[in-house]
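Note to self: keep these together.
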Amino acid sequence: MIVYQKIQKRLAETIAQSGLSQAHIANQIGVTQQTISHYCRGENLPALDTFANLCAALDADPAYILGLTD
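Structure:
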């Protein structure tokens, strides 16, 4: 089962562990740094297209972030 809180946590962890600044990530995917900050604090989740771009920019496995794999 996909759990919203697990997605928020894994997304925030993946961003933090990327070694990239929030501003750099934001610039790569065409959103503001504040938007990335909201993702890190678990306040928002990205739209599907933004999520796909974010996973590509972070070289992250979407299935992991969605809680489909460990």
